[in-house]
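Researcher: Re-running this chain for the archive, since the previous output was lost when a drive failed. Same request as before.
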Amino acid sequence: MKPCLRSQNKSFCVVLICAGLITLVFGVAWGRTLPDAAHNLSMLSGMFAGMGGGLTALGAVWLIKLKVMKPETLRQEAIEQNDERNVQVRRMAYEAASKAATFIFAILAFILLWLDYRIPAILSIGALYLHFIVFLIAAKVADKKM
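Model: Regenerated structure tokens:
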């Protein structure tokens, strides 16, 4: 898997590592203060710790890659990722992912309502509305730029 262009920016990698470490430390520290009966909060703190560890590892791997790879190779990768065909392929993939996310949130809302979980269902519907609003704003901005 090739990293995104942002991974070729050292400052982005450092910010990713810092954000990951903060999230990791927060998750571990918070998890230690929770009582044994708070299973859902313990799971949430574990998710924070796991996400923080993943972000830290990803930033570290990208930073090491930047240090090890030759500048010529990095430049060639950047040119390849900016190629019109590759940009179009990524846009098509984002479009497919957006359609899938919309479908999944809609199905999830129905399932949650069927199971009588009203608040999670409302959150799922809210995510659908937010997704639609972001789409409308992005389309408006893109239309003005073109």
